[in-house]
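subagent[fold] <- orchestrator: predict structure for attached chain, return tokens only, no commentary.
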Amino acid sequence: MKLTMLFKASFAALLLTTALASASAVAETSVWKVSKGDDYVYIGGTVHLLPESAFPLPDEFGKAYADTDTLVLEAKVPAATDTELQAAMLKAMSYNDNRSLSKVLSPEVYKQVSDYFAPYGVQLHQLDAYKPGFIMIQMLALEIMKAQMDGEGVDSHFDKLAQSDGKAQLYLETVESQINLLANMGEGYEDAFMKMNLEQVSDFKQYFSAMIDAWRVGDMVELDKLAVEPARQMDPELYQALYVKRNQNWLPQIEKMFGNANKELVLVGGGHLAGEHSLLALLQQAGYKLEQLSL
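subagent[fold] -> orchestrator:
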């Protein structure tokens, strides 16, 4: 695979960042109605990349969208043709000092990563100037393509719909902040970070399918087990940066949506709604009423 093709795929994989379907007659969804008195905001958990087979989405997503005036996403969905943002991503994820991937990784782990890329025709020395976070994104991009699970995510689906409908949009953070978050992954513990990612991609298709199944029926216990708790156990620093701090930053922004004349649908990665430090837990602790919507 040519390196330029890998870069293109990794730009799509940047959106993913962030298990058994219930057989019950009434299925819950990953959409919540968060209320304060008579006022309410919808919050939906998303998967940032979905295979075509995952569509149509659960009806409650569409109903929540139709009932609201404003769509709120984590960040603006980048266009695949945004070369300026691609350049910014590559710059943020490149070493600008005397370090390189081969220097920050031990020879043993460097060989393991090199062996991973070899079957795809990618020589790891081609990526030597890039940080582990960028290498992780390349691995994710390759696994998504290999599993034939690439496609439009929930966020991009509603982003396009809102643009077509002329619906207002707001964002909880910038794309640049997300890039910087990814660029700093593994900083100071590069070997452990890469070994963790090598382990996770070993059964990617099964893992990703399980995440989609859990998301589709709003099984936050399973989603916590699959996506959130492993990060908490294996990489506490990443867990704090990826989930805890961002959830805390988003809480006051969502609280400001109450008491205005608009109704909002907030869409964030499903992992942000699972676990004890989730956005839903923070809202409940703040006194809001939560209602998980069912089909």
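orchestrator: received. Logging for downstream: The chain has one domain: 3-88+133-181+203-294. The chain is about 50% helix and 15% strand.
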